[in-house]
Amino acid sequence: MTETEAQRLDKWLWCARFFKSRALATKAVGAGKLRLSGKVVAKSHQLVRPGDVLTFPQGPHIRVVKVLILAERRGPAPEAQLLFEDLSPIDADAGKGDRPKPAATPAQRDPGAGRPTKRDRRLIDHFRSPDK
User: What is the pLDDT of residues 22-72, one digit of tens each?
Assistant: First the structure.
């Protein structure tokens, strides 16, 4: 394979829009959080080729993507989605059940009702602690 059939890993991740900046992609690769075809990668200058499988964390999810095409430039999102095949799609509903629910919901006021009056405040205080 020649050099034109490969691309720097950090640049490809940035062009595929997995990271907002190339520096963030370099930092993630340098932290050893990325696997290239099953092997941990610690250098951002590692070359990636079509057919390679990348595994890396992105937020609370683990992304597994297969490189289909090398990037010529960082284009719009629809163009970036053509660069890879997502082998583990993120389930939108999976993260909703993981968050803890608040202990108590705050009192709801009508929109445009403004701040509570002195009388409203006394009623709220009496409601919270009826002993007084």
Answer: 898 888 888 888 898 888 888 888 899 999 999 988 888 888 999 999 988
pLDDT, residue 65, reads 92
Per the domain annotation, does 129 fall within a domain? no
Distance CA 51, CA 53 (A): 7
The total number of structural domains in the chain stands at 1
* Percent of residues in the chain assigned helix, strand, coil, to nearest 5: 30, 20, 50
Q: How far apart are CA 89 and CA 131, in angstroms?
A: 55
Cβ neighbors of 8 (< 8 A, separation 6 or more) are 44, 45, 46, 47, 48
> Would you say residue 101 lies in a domain?
no
Residue 56 burial class via C-beta count within 10 angstroms: exposed 0-12, middle 13-18, buried 19 and up: buried
Range of the domain at 63: 3-86
Domain for residue 23, yes or no? yes
